[in-house]
Amino acid sequence: QVQFVESGGGLVQPGGSLRLSCAASGIIFRIYDMGWYRQAPGKQRELVARITASRTTNYADSVKGRFTISRDNAKNTVYLQMNSLKSEDTAVYYCNRNPAGTSWGQGTQVTVSS
Fold first, then answer.
1. How far apart are CA 105 and CA 36, in angstroms?
2. Residue 78 near residue 36 (C-beta atoms within 8 A)
Protein backbone atom coordinates (compact mmCIF):
# COMPACT_ATOMS: atom_id res chain seq x y z
CA GLN A 1 0.00 0.00 0.00
CA VAL A 2 1.48 3.30 -1.13
CA GLN A 3 1.56 5.93 1.61
CA PHE A 4 2.92 9.45 1.85
CA VAL A 5 3.20 11.34 5.15
CA GLU A 6 3.93 15.06 4.85
CA SER A 7 5.13 17.26 7.71
CA GLY A 8 6.83 20.55 8.46
CA GLY A 9 4.16 23.06 7.54
CA GLY A 10 3.04 25.95 9.69
CA LEU A 11 2.42 29.66 9.94
CA VAL A 12 5.27 31.87 8.78
CA GLN A 13 5.67 35.56 8.02
CA PRO A 14 6.36 36.77 4.48
CA GLY A 15 10.05 36.37 3.75
CA GLY A 16 10.37 33.45 6.12
CA SER A 17 11.41 29.85 5.51
CA LEU A 18 10.05 26.37 6.07
CA ARG A 19 11.35 22.89 5.33
CA LEU A 20 8.80 20.26 4.41
CA SER A 21 9.42 16.52 4.64
CA CYS A 22 7.57 13.61 3.09
CA ALA A 23 8.12 10.01 4.10
CA ALA A 24 7.08 7.46 1.50
CA SER A 25 6.29 3.78 2.00
CA GLY A 26 4.93 0.97 -0.13
CA ILE A 27 7.04 1.90 -3.17
CA ILE A 28 10.61 1.30 -4.30
CA PHE A 29 11.33 4.93 -3.58
CA ARG A 30 14.72 5.22 -5.22
CA ILE A 31 13.46 4.36 -8.71
CA TYR A 32 10.69 6.94 -8.84
CA ASP A 33 10.66 10.58 -9.85
CA MET A 34 9.03 12.49 -6.99
CA GLY A 35 7.17 15.77 -6.82
CA TRP A 36 5.86 18.34 -4.39
CA TYR A 37 2.41 19.62 -5.21
CA ARG A 38 0.25 22.28 -3.63
CA GLN A 39 -3.41 23.21 -3.59
CA ALA A 40 -4.58 26.65 -2.57
CA PRO A 41 -8.21 27.32 -1.62
CA GLY A 42 -10.42 27.38 -4.70
CA LYS A 43 -7.60 26.33 -7.01
CA GLN A 44 -6.49 23.12 -8.66
CA ARG A 45 -3.58 21.13 -7.31
CA GLU A 46 -0.35 22.09 -9.07
CA LEU A 47 3.16 20.67 -9.30
CA VAL A 48 5.71 23.05 -7.80
CA ALA A 49 8.90 20.98 -7.79
CA ARG A 50 10.12 17.70 -9.19
CA ILE A 51 13.19 15.55 -8.61
CA THR A 52 14.01 12.60 -10.80
CA ALA A 53 15.50 9.30 -9.69
CA SER A 54 18.83 10.63 -10.96
CA ARG A 55 18.30 13.84 -8.92
CA THR A 56 17.60 16.22 -11.78
CA THR A 57 15.33 18.99 -10.47
CA ASN A 58 12.66 21.16 -12.09
CA TYR A 59 10.57 23.96 -10.62
CA ALA A 60 7.46 25.91 -11.43
CA ASP A 61 8.28 29.46 -12.49
CA SER A 62 6.46 30.79 -9.43
CA VAL A 63 8.90 29.14 -7.01
CA LYS A 64 12.13 29.03 -9.03
CA GLY A 65 15.04 30.45 -7.09
CA ARG A 66 13.16 30.24 -3.77
CA PHE A 67 12.35 26.53 -3.32
CA THR A 68 14.75 23.58 -3.36
CA ILE A 69 13.68 19.95 -3.64
CA SER A 70 15.94 17.13 -2.46
CA ARG A 71 15.69 13.47 -1.60
CA ASP A 72 17.25 10.92 0.75
CA ASN A 73 16.77 7.46 -0.71
CA ALA A 74 18.11 5.79 2.44
CA LYS A 75 15.21 7.34 4.37
CA ASN A 76 12.59 7.13 1.59
CA THR A 77 12.08 10.85 2.13
CA VAL A 78 11.75 13.87 -0.12
CA TYR A 79 12.22 17.42 1.17
CA LEU A 80 11.17 20.90 0.09
CA GLN A 81 13.17 23.84 1.40
CA MET A 82 11.09 26.97 0.97
CA ASN A 83 12.73 30.38 1.35
CA SER A 84 11.51 33.94 0.78
CA LEU A 85 7.95 32.80 1.26
CA LYS A 86 5.13 34.90 -0.11
CA SER A 87 1.44 35.07 0.74
CA GLU A 88 0.66 33.37 -2.57
CA ASP A 89 2.57 30.29 -1.37
CA THR A 90 -0.22 29.64 1.14
CA ALA A 91 -1.61 26.19 0.35
CA VAL A 92 -1.75 22.58 1.44
CA TYR A 93 1.43 20.88 0.23
CA TYR A 94 1.54 17.24 -0.83
CA CYS A 95 4.17 14.90 -2.17
CA ASN A 96 3.61 12.10 -4.65
CA ARG A 97 5.32 10.34 -7.46
CA ASN A 98 5.66 12.27 -10.70
CA PRO A 99 3.48 11.70 -12.60
CA ALA A 100 1.26 11.42 -9.53
CA GLY A 101 -0.35 8.17 -8.52
CA THR A 102 -3.84 7.91 -7.10
CA SER A 103 -2.85 7.69 -3.41
CA TRP A 104 -2.37 11.03 -1.68
CA GLY A 105 -1.35 11.82 1.87
CA GLN A 106 -3.08 14.27 4.17
CA GLY A 107 -0.78 17.09 3.15
CA THR A 108 0.74 19.78 5.33
CA GLN A 109 -0.69 23.28 5.61
CA VAL A 110 1.59 26.22 4.84
CA THR A 111 0.24 29.65 5.71
CA VAL A 112 2.24 32.76 4.88
CA SER A 113 0.82 35.76 6.65
CA SER A 114 1.88 38.70 8.78
1. 12
2. yes
Task: Indicate the length of the chain as a whole number.
Answer: 114
Cα–Cα distances in angstroms (integers) from residue 58 to residues 13, 69, 111, in the given order = 26, 9, 23
Cβ count near 114 (within 10 Å): 8
Q: What single-letter amino acid sits at 41?
A: P
Q: Is the dihedral of CA 7, 48, 91, 99 positive or negative?
A: negative
**Biggest CA pair distance of the chain:** 41
In tens, the pLDDT along 56-96 reads 999 999 999 999 999 999 999 999 999 999 999 999 999 99
* Model confidence pLDDT, tens digit, residues 30-39: 999 999 999 9
Q: Are 106 and 43 in contact (CB under 8 A)?
A: no
Please give the DSSP secondary-structure letter assigned to residue 56. -
Phi, psi of 13 (to 5 degrees): -75, 155
CA distances from 81 to 27, 52, 101 (A): 23, 17, 23
